[in-house]
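Researcher: We plan to redesign the surface later, but first we want a full-length starting point. Tokens attached.
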């Protein structure tokens, strides 16, 4: 299907701001935040004077930080994206202050830099371990940096269960009002995730079909080919359920399942998402073994060659899961009886994230067997790697020779249709923080409702003492995850 391209990217500049990145020399700043901010400058979204201030414990001058940032941009931008004039402007807006989250060291120097512009919007990005969130928030307050236009941005993990999430939320909430807290789930900044809202609520085509009257089941898959990467300490304590399901996958589920909000106003959307989270049927003890699968990869092959197993990569014994599949249920009028099959894992066959809306089969076929097998309609929303929406339908195989049916996809590949660069999720999210728009950020009650559903699964896994099921790297996970859906007479959608 071709899409008529009348797209122009509309850039509305934001007010001048000071963005302070705590953990400014860390991995997130290097790979995501600096490139995202560079792109927003390049596309003309900044108003001067806008400053980016990195803070961390390393001893560095402004000049040394600019060198660090230049190297980060050279590594992480695509060829041709970096130009000398833009780079010069970008580096000139960077500053560095050595600050210790655990002591008073460096705070007065940071304060005096910021106090050059007390009225300006301030965004404090905590790209640091959550164990430092409380310390940093309190020090910001004590040094008088929580000005009326200040806001704070925190990354997951927001806790490792409901109790710890509440403590973290209380700690940050003691300094910043909820309206000033931006909890990032970068999946909400992805283009196709936003498109899900457009597909559902800007078209009259799908919404009447969007319920248990017409939908048979829904699949949400986020599969990755990467393994542990360099995140040994974090990942082995988290595991796939905390790392991917509690946040990214449940947020996708919310956007698929929520009722139409009255507007795109942040609380209107988040109220609807919260209702979905609260409608998730608890998966408790007796059912955990039937409704969930946890796996861990062993040595195998990836597209780049042979890869080690999880425990070899880790260099220690571990029962942490790198794969999860769950059969979930949203217990409300719209979704009763429609299973939501969720799965995510590392070292799987492909990097592919997609949401599959599988419609019910036609109630009766008028065609005889010579027409071939009748498949159901599916709407496949692909988040990555190549963003697209495909609508699978049955058609007649072209040509004479009788009626033969064929299952084909109407392909709406946005990346090809619109010749514009697809911005990284962080670009959109950072600008939303400056605009003060919380629609794409998780509210406190959402995070806590998600943990309320996750906690019993974690508890039951822990008490069962069962080892995670092994799967070979480069496959689709343990065979039990295939059985999870096949015993309901369904299969995971394959081949986009
Ligand atoms: C992060 C997880 O939140 O998302 C990682 O901690 C995961 O484990 C990553 O690899 C996936 O993000 P994306 O945007 O590459 O799909």
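Model: Full-length starting sequence:
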């Amino acid at each position: 299907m071709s899409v008529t391209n009348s797209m122009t990217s509309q850039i509305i500049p934001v007010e001048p701001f000071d963005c302070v990145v705590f953990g400014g020399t860390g991995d997130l700043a290097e790979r995501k935040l600096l490139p995202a901010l560079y792109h927003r400058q390049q596309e003309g979204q900044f108003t001067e004077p806008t400053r980016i201030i990195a803070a961390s414990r390393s001893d560095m001058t402004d000049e040394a930080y600019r060198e660090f940032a230049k190297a980060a941009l050279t590594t992480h931008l695509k060829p041709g994206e970096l130009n000398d004039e833009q780079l010069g402007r970008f580096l000139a807006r960077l500053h560095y202050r050595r600050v210790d989250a655990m002591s008073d060291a460096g705070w007065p120097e940071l304060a005096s830099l910021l106090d050059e512009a007390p009225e300006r919007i301030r965004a404090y990005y905590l790209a640091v371990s959550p164990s430092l969130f409380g310390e940093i928030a309190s020090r910001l307050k004590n040094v008088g940096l929580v000005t009326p236009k200040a806001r704070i941005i925190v990354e997951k993990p927001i806790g490792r269960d409901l109790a710890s999430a509440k403590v973290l939320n209380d700690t940050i909430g003691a300094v910043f009002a909820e309206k000033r807290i931006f909890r990032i789930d970068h999946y909400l900044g992805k283009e196709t995730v936003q498109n899900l809202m457009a597909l559902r609520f800007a078209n009259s085509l799908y919404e009447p079909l969007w319920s248990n009257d017409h939908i048979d089941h829904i699949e949400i898959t986020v599969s990755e080919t990467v393994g542990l990467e360099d995140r040994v300490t974090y990942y082995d304590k988290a595991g796939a359920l905390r790392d991917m399901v509690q946040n990214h996958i449940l947020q996708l589920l919310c956007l698929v399942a929520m009722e139409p909000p009255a507007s795109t106003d942040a609380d209107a959307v988040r109220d609807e998402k919260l209702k979905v989270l609260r409608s998730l049927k608890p998966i408790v003890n007796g059912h955990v073994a039937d409704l969930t699968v946890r796996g861990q990869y062993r040595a195998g092959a990836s597209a780049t060659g042979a890869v080690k197993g999880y425990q070899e990569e880790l260099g220690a014994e571990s029962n942490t899961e790198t794969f999860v599949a769950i059969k979930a249920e949203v217990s409300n009028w719209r979704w009763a009886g429609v299973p939501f099959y969720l799965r995510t894992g590392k070292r799987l066959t492909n990097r592919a994230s997609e949401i599959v809306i599988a419609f019910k089969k036609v109630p009766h076929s008028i065609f005889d067997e010579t027409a071939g097998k009748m498949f159901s309609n599916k709407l496949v929303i692909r988040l990555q790697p190549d963003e697209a929406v495909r609508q699978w339908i049955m058609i007649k195989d072209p040509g004479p020779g009788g009626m033969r049916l064929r299952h084909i996809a109407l392909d709406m590949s946005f990346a090809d249709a619109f010749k514009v660069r697809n911005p990284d999720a962080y670009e959109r999210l950072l600008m939303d923080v400056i605009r003060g728009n919380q629609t794409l950020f998780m509210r406190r009650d959402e995070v806590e409702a998600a943990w309320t559903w996750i906690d019993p699964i974690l508890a039951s896994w822990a008490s069962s003492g069962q080892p995670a099921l092994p799967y070979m790297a480069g496959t689709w996970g343990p065979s039990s995850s295939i059985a999870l859906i096949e015993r309901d007479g369904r299969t995971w959608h394959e081949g986009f």
